[in-house]
Specification:
537 residues
Length: 537
């Protein structure tokens, strides 16, 4: 057997070009039966990238045939390429055929049957499919005289190892989290659900990035109309790049103009597995550790894994604390403004005297005080988030203490306002879902304006509008306020309270009863976001 090294240096690409030009080039290129021509086209297509590796050698002794193995350095499993591709071709080809067949198809079949030792092998006859496979980390094997290519499954490279979740921390429960590899993430779920009814579908989204997206559901538990709706919305997406699961989330959500999240995301495999068992659909996007769960309801954003690893009584207490925290987050400053500005008679006389004494030298009304402190608190929160983790929390806490002391001593803000804003900020941290906490922080400013203009009448009007808006929301055909509206007795076992574990059933009827049959129009993809939210370019 004769082996020959081959450089991967080729002609320089003619400028950077653009996506349209690349697409036009791809449309006219084909896998040639001339090996050198095909290799030259690959080099030109990739601009002679230094991470493109090409290894040429001959197999067969009587009538040797030139073969090339093409792969992208950094995207492949080096051990698999060295041992099961290169080594196998050298060793097994000589044993399999001293004389290579004359027909190209027979040569290809010989290598497929007796030379390669990979578990995943496929034949590619389309240029675009071959290039996509190459850029996905597979090894492409080309034979001189053959217009088809062999794809060897050698995906690999460096990935972050499975580690403890960074955002969804629990006291008791699994300590693993999703990573950036879609295959690893699917495996983390399958280790928890060892059932043949766990079905997986793959699709590629992004005309440039060709990002892998996996759709997971439990056959027989997930409703077919929900799965079909999710699949349809994914296929409607027309976008160049998908770099994070939030891209998908924003394009498949039911309503665009709402602060409330209608798609749940998690980095915990146990949470994803539990949602699958409840009949929901999980979407895993390659390159991100956050998976999406649909459909979802408001109560889901106030639940935590700790609710199911602790006793039901303590879990119920903690859940009620979270609901109370949400109310404080929404209404805390606005109630204080309404009391001190419009409704003095509702404040006890000793407290009223103390409040008026504090406000004696303060130049701003209560509404302006609240706006200043809320804005300052949001700035500190954002600064703490963007700074390194080691100093971020320290900056937030120390900054809040120093700022609060300074504004009180300067006579700009009353001490009670500092307490109210601090309590509101702490309440936002008690909400398990970051997305829901952000929604509460946004809505809080609306209640501030309403309370500063009309007092409790403004707050009441705001609550009516808020409840009506939430009640109008749906997530893939499921009412957002379910199982409270429409009311379901069975659903109350795990909503405001968490009853003992033996009373909780994860059968698909739990989710199915939430669906509002009177609103089947959205099940057919006719929601308002279908026109502006799911098919954005």
């Amino acid at each position: 057997m004769k082996k020959k090294g081959q450089s991967n240096q080729g002609a320089p690409a003619g400028g950077s070009g653009n996506t349209a030009t690349r697409a036009e080039n791809q449309a006219v290129l084909n896998i040639s039966n001339n090996l050198e021509q095909t290799l030259g086209n690959i080099k030109r297509e990739l601009g002679s990238s230094p991470d493109l590796k090409i290894r040429k050698f001959q197999i067969g002794s009587a009538e040797p045939v030139w073969v090339a193995a093409v792969f992208m350095d950094g995207l492949i499993n080096a051990v698999a390429v060295d041992e099961f591709v290169m080594g196998a071709l050298f060793d097994n080809s000589a044993d399999a055929a001293e004389e290579m067949p004359r027909e190209p198809q027979e040569r290809l079949q010989l290598i497929l049957d007796r030379a390669l030792e990979l578990g995943e092998i496929a034949v590619k006859d389309d240029w675009n499919d071959m290039m996509l496979s190459l850029l996905s980390g597979n090894t492409i094997i080309l034979l001189d005289g053959c217009s088809k290519a062999i794809e060897g499954g050698t995906k690999g490279g460096e990935w972050r190892t499975v580690a403890e979740p960074s955002s969804q921390i629990v006291i008791r429960g699994p300590k693993d989290s999703f990573v950036e590899s879609i295959i690893t993430n699917i495996a983390l779920i399958r280790r928890r659900i060892k059932s043949p009814t766990l079905w997986t579908e793959f699709m590629k989204i992004g005309t440039v990035t060709n990002t892998d997206v996996a759709l997971l559901y439990m056959k027989g538990r997930a409703e077919d109309k929900v799965v079909d709706l999710v699949r349809m919305r994914l296929k409607k997406i027309n976008i160049e790049a998908v770099l994070e699961s939030s891209y998908i989330e924003q394009l498949i959500q039911d309503k665009l103009f709402t602060p409330f999240p209608t798609v749940y995301n998690t980095e915990r495999p146990d949470v994803a597995a539990a949602n699958l068992l409840e009949g929901r659909v999980v979407l895993i996007v390659d390159g991100t550790p956050f998976v999406l769960v649909v459909p979802t309801v408001l109560a889901q954003f106030l639940q935590s894994t700790d609710d199911y690893t602790q006793r039901f009584d303590s879990a119920t207490l903690m859940r009620l604390v979270r609901y109370m925290s949400l109310i404080i987050l929404l209404l805390g400053p606005s109630v204080y403004i309404a009391l001190t500005t419009f409704h003095y008679e509702m404040v006890p006389t000793p407290m009223l005297i103390s409040l008026l004494a504090q406000r004696e030298n303060v130049p701003f009304p209560a509404a302006i005080e609240a706006m200043i402190m809320e804005a300052a608190f949001e700035i500190l929160r954002e600064a703490g988030t963007r700074m390194p983790r080691a100093v971020g929390q320290t900056v937030s806490i120390v900054g809040a203490l120093i700022l609060g002391t300074a504004v009180v001593e300067a006579g700009i803000i009353t001490p009670v306002m500092v307490i109210v804003v601090a309590l509101t900020g702490i309440a936002s941290f008690a909400i398990p879902s970051y997305n829901l906490a952000v929604a509460g922080r946004i809505i809080r400013f609306g209640f501030l304006v309403a309370a500063s203009m009309f007092g409790f009448y403004g707050i009441t009007l705001g609550l009516i509008v808020l409840i009506a808006h939430i009640n109008s929301l749906e997530s893939f055909g499921t009412p957002y306020l379910a199982p409270l509206s429409p009311f379901s007795i069975r659903g109350q076992k795990d909503t405001l309270a968490r009853l003992p574990m033996f009373t909780i059933d994860l059968s698909p009827e739990k989710l199915g009863n939430m669906n509002n049959d009177n609103k089947s129009g959205n099940d057919q993809g006719t929601s308002d976001s279908g026109k502006d939210g799911r098919t954005g370019a």
